[in-house]
Design brief:
alpha/beta, five-stranded parallel sheet, 60% helix
Amino acid sequence: MALISVLLGGTSAVYSFGSTSLQLNSKHWLHLHAMFTTIAGLIWGTGAILCSLETPDKLLFYTLALGGTALGAVSSQHSYLVSCYLSLWTSIPMLSVAHFLAGSNLENRVAGILILLFGVMLSILGWRMYRFLANNVALNKSLDAKVNELEDVRHRLDQALKVTQDANEAKSRLLAQASHDLRQPVHAAGLFIAHLKEKTTDPDSLQILDRVGLSLASLSRLFRSLLDIAALDLGRITVQPTVFPIQEVIDQVVRQAEVLAQKNKITIRTVPTRQWVRTDPALLETIMQNLVINAIKYAPGKDILVGCRRVKNTLSIEVIDRGQGIPPAKCNEIFKEFSRLPEALMKGIDGLGLGLAIVKRMADLMGVAVTVYSLEGKGSRFIVSGIAQTSPRPSEQPDTRKPRNFENFRVTIIDDDALCADGIASLLGSWGCKTTVFNSLPAGLPQSDFLIIDQSFGSDTSGIDWLEQLHRQGHKPPAALLTASLEEDLTIRCRSLSVPILRKPVQPGQLRSLLIAATRRHRDTASNPSPP
């Protein structure tokens, strides 16, 4: 029995480790294992017959030993039923016969029958364990197949997602570049129109120029929406919070919307506030611009109210109109890209359905909430809430003094686009400025009171690079950077130099406001020169 046990163990070990040294397939190993279990069963059965010739105590002990061995055989051999059954039914019947041979009394006969029943029960147990194991193996194979299938699907989805992401990024880059390039002629046209309006007094001509200006302003808003959505898609917009009075943003938004409001016979009323906040002023201004322009387009002839409300330690800005309102079912849809109300399509209201989508995405980026409350036929209320409120900084209180004019104020324009440069120079000249135009970046610092520099020159050196070089040389001229780019890195670099950005197409009102501040600083510097 010891030799047979060693042979059984060796056979199982060699089969388990997959040895091919004997060049036998799995069936040969199983047949070999079955042969050894048959021999082991016959030896156990022979031992039982021999014990029946001895004392009853020896047969009883042998019966207990063989029963335990048979149970162990079922536990270890149920994965191969042939070996399991051969092991049982070569030893169990012989043990039953041994009890019948030990004596003809009732006890021995009952014991022989019970031993046979024990063998039947072990056979059933072995079958059940085999089925359980077979089901587990089948389930594992099925799970492995499903896992492989899911892995293959995941791989294909990853590839499809990468293709989609690449396509979306290419689309966003194309939109950004196209919007940037198209803004150049719109920017120049707007400046020339403003210049013509300064020179023309004929009412009919002014009316035509106003209409052309409004058309260009509408086109400019479309380009700005495309640039904003492209920048958001490409992740180029990050939040740069600063402390500032909220009224500055409100006044700026209202000034920029005045022309469109007048065209639609709308008065924009504001509720003055002295509250200061900490957030990104550029993003907040873009959000407010979109909300106010949206109210103007959808509520023609109705006044608009813009005001603030304090909520604990935060501030909310509300834009309220008395237009047709929004159906309740559409209140969530209007924040989706390219979503427009049927009223806009029917009345031919311009736009791409991107304004409120930009508002929602920028608000999420800033960590503030945008909600809308509307009643059909009565109007809508858009609320930007959760803006962090803070204490004012006295050193940043705005100076309200206004210069009388720009007479003899020297402005240098550096732009490789001759059309744009001429447009700015003509407009500034009509305001009294003395202008000098460079179509490339000069080697040194021009003699000027203020610089307007384009960012892109089609070379390795950009406008902001040139300004940074001047700052490293100790020159810090008052300047503004002219660009259509929304690159956040450019915004950060301009802030570090305290250089404002003029986004193309520049509105004449923006340019005038910038020059008012520049002439004020120039006058203050001239009256209070730095000590030698």
